[in-house]
Amino acid sequence: MGLLGRRTLLRLLALASAAVAVAVTVEAYEGDADPLYRYHCMMERENERAKLGLQPVKYHGKWPLKRASVFQEPLSAALSALTLVVQFNGWLSFFLLLYYKLPLRPETHKTYYEYTGLWHIYGLLAMNSWFWSAIYHSCDTIWTEKLYFSSDAAFLGYSLILAILRTLNLRDEASRVMVAAPILAFVTTHILYLNFYELDKGLNMKVCTVIIIAQCLLWALWAVMTRHPSRLKIIFVAIGGAAAVLLEASDIPPRWGYVDGRAICLAVAIPLSYLWWSFAKEDAEMRTSAILKKAR
């Protein structure tokens, strides 16, 4: 073979090698973009670590959990869905109690309970938050993650507003606006930051933890200082909520491939949600009875 032929062959080999390299790079990129590809790579690596007696490690900020069919975190998704059902049942029973069992104002046909509207908004935000929690734990994408974080922050921020208004017994609109406005502004800014600047999970965890601890302290102090018939339920929910937050912050590694600290917190939320709506109904009954006694 002549010199010209050898050069041509070398060029063809170089082009072929470059083409193969590009193909491998594209394939690797497409594999990285495929959630199932990442999942199988992650589980294969974790199986190798388990054989060596090593503990699980996080991937992209999350513990490696086993899938079940299309559900990415089956236990967390199921617990979120169950909490959603409990929230809906609690809100519906609260609605039926106020409008069909307790007396209404004869002139306006509105409830005597001063916090009816606040609890309705709470119920809607709670159901929205748990709905997106179930979706996010079923399928973790950038959009479901943003919707989950945003709805959770909105729900917790409003829960703090409700805690302040009820524990301080604020009934006039001016006082309620003064309390709600700065909290709504902060939560809105936080949600916009997460969605349009940086999805900072660490920052979001700190913000949510502070909000939860603050409202748990408010409710617990109020329950201790008042003679409310549901004060034991309030104290139990406050302690349980604070314990769940600390449990999640401890970041427990997964057990049996499905259970991690987040799943335990979601399990705790089910009885707490039931007790919380039980308190809301008893509070409505107590306030309605007190207002009717004063009217007589």
UniProtKB/TrEMBL annotation:
The keyword tRNA-binding does not apply. It is found in: Golgi apparatus membrane. GO terms for cellular component: Golgi membrane. GO terms for biological process: GPI anchor biosynthetic process. Keywords: Golgi apparatus, GPI-anchor biosynthesis, Membrane, Signal, Transmembrane, Transmembrane helix. It is a multi-pass membrane protein. Residues 1-28 form the signal peptide. The chain crosses the membrane at residues 75-100, 112-135, 147-165, 177-197, 203-225, 232-250, 256-277. PANTHER family: PER1-RELATED, POST-GPI ATTACHMENT TO PROTEINS FACTOR 3. Belongs to the PGAP3 family. Involved in the lipid remodeling steps of GPI-anchor maturation. This is Post-GPI attachment to proteins factor 3.
